[in-house]
Amino acid sequence: MQTMDWSGVRAMVFDMDGTLLNTEQVIIDSASQVLEQLGHAPLPQGYHMPNMFGTAADLMADVLIERGLPLPQGGRAQLGLLFERFYAAQPAGVAQLYDGVRQWLHAAKALGLKLGVCTNKQHALALVGLQAAGILSLFDTVTGRDTYGIAKPDAAPLLGTLQALQVSPQDSVFFGDTHADAACAQAAGVRFAWFTTGFGTDHVRAYPQVLAFADYRQLPSVAPRTAQIA
Fold first, then answer.
1. What pTM did the predictor assign?
2. Domain housing 12
């Protein structure tokens, strides 16, 4: 049994992919389309992305490395643009919310907590995904990797998100699934809650965390000052 003390928490900020939305298949399908656009074979069935935490360019560059393929003439920038184009063309709503996410967000909102999203996805794509999932209106601010011109694990995106919420790092909790999220939280001086069902690996364990949980339904429906998490 793990105990989480919610006293003093005024804001909750969430990563998006692998934390709120299970976008794994959408990401794989988009990456496969990029490969085909570049004249390569599509990804095989059951493929697992080598990088599920970086920017669009990072994700695609690591796929090329893993497949033994060269960078295109336009380099990483071209990869990122192609991925984002194909990702944006995916059917709206195909990525599902993890169980319990909607209820948890509503409960936190009812308590008067400020809610934000800090993602390495392009801001416009994040808005589309959150809107399709029916939860965009619950957030007071959403920031993407292009909002501040730098991506997690740098602390700047999370600190900028908290500044927009007008809440200090000490009064906040950041929910994420990967070591990039955990490193970002540590650098920003923000408490980190690890969603273990997401895309992260054991690398997350190297960073401080106040909570590790596998299911939002394990979290209390209304966050009291102190809650116990299984």
1. 0.89
2. 2-23+95-229
